[in-house]
Amino acid sequence: GLKVKVIGQQAITLIKALESNPVVEKVEYIRHQGTGTYQIPDTDNCLYIFNGVLPQALPLQAVIINPPPTDEVNYPAELISLYTVAPERIKSPRITRTDSLTALLKYADLSGLRIATASKITVKDSAHFTALANSDVGDVLIGEIERGGKRCLLVAFDLEWGQDNNWASLPSFPIFWANAVAYFNNRRATGNETNIEKGLCNEKASD
């Protein structure tokens, strides 16, 4: 099974969604406050989810949620060359465009999603950064990074329910994270890139 470490701000709804997934063997939450970066052990073979904080170096597979502004944190060189985050946040962005071809959003309807604020991300290297969901004015709200054998999902907003953020109450929330878990688990098991549709998505479709 896949081992997951959630690092940073509390993420109760996310942890519950992960713990209910049969593919996930263990979920560990590590509290890490402030705007500093977190150093991960070189020997860990797991999925890292950074909530409001950043790794000192990008692991092989990771999710970064609600990334802090570039000028507040010593960003890893791997990330600063791919995107920057402005000090000001986007208020009440609406998801209007999604990548319909990515399996990470398969069955995950984001049309009813309400977001209070989101990080304002500017993509610097479009060759290694793919926008999966955009706002009505083109801001990246969910993105995918692939570089040097490493893969990372970027979610530009807080996940917790409240303050006009309702994703945790929508069916698309557990579906999206089931897709992500299947994708990372398949890739880890094979040692290379694997189509997520060989994982949980097809299992759901055949139920």
Structure description:
This protein is an alpha/beta fold and 207 residues long. It is 18% helix and 34% strand. The protein is built from four helices and twelve strands, in the order βαβββββαββββββαα. The protein has helices spanning 12-19, 77-80, 172-190, 200-206, and strands spanning 2-8, 24-31, 37-38, 47-51, 54-55, 61-65, 83-91, 95-98, 117-123, 129-135, 140-147, 150-155. Strands 2-1-4-6-12-11-10-8 form an eight-stranded mixed β-sheet. The chain has a two-stranded parallel ribbon with strand order 3-5. Strand 1 (2-8), helix 1 and strand 2 (24-31) form a beta-alpha-beta unit. The protein is globular and about 40 Å long. The two termini are 21 Å apart.
Name the quaternary structure: single chain
Number of helices: 4
Strand portion: 25-35%
Distance between the termini: 21 Å
SSE-based structural type: alpha/beta
Strand order of the largest sheet: 2-1-4-6-12-11-10-8
Identify the overall geometry. globular
In short:
The protein has 207 residues and is of the alpha/beta class.
Any chance you could write out the topology, listing elements then pairs?
Elements: E1 2-8, H1 12-19, E2 24-31, E3 37-38, E4 47-51, E5 54-55, E6 61-65, H2 77-80, E7 83-91, E8 95-98, E9 117-123, E10 129-135, E11 140-147, E12 150-155, H3 172-190, H4 200-206
Parallel strand pairs: 1-2, 1-4, 3-5, 4-6, 6-12
Antiparallel strand pairs: 7-9, 8-10, 10-11, 11-12
